Amino acid sequence: MICANTECNKEFEPKTHNQKYCTDECCRVATNKRIMDKYYERKAIRNGAARPCKKCKAQLSRYNKSNICSVCEKSLSIENRKKIMGFLNEIG
Ligand SMILES: [Zn+2]
Ligand SMILES: [Zn+2]
Predict the structure, then answer these.
(1) How far is the CA of 39 from the centre of ligand 1 (A)?
(2) Beta partners for 59?
(3) What pLDDT, in 10s, does the model give residues 16-37?
């Protein structure tokens, strides 16, 4: 069995069937690394890693958690309202 800690990669004799790391320390290091990877990924988004708007391709604000920019979001809601108004006029 090879230690699942990529920085260790040592061969070891597992004591339990689900042991993935040679030592508790390796387990801790690998878990920390996973958490830090997630953290840096989120940090990159917050720092403005390029995320284009789905509709107009404008770069999204780092505070924007949706896939489209605020301008498109607004025009979309206006469009929806127009649709509803048109519908109401038709039946009215
Ligand atoms: Zn190890
Ligand atoms: Zn947009």
Answers:
(1) 23
(2) 52
(3) 999 999 999 999 999 999 999 9
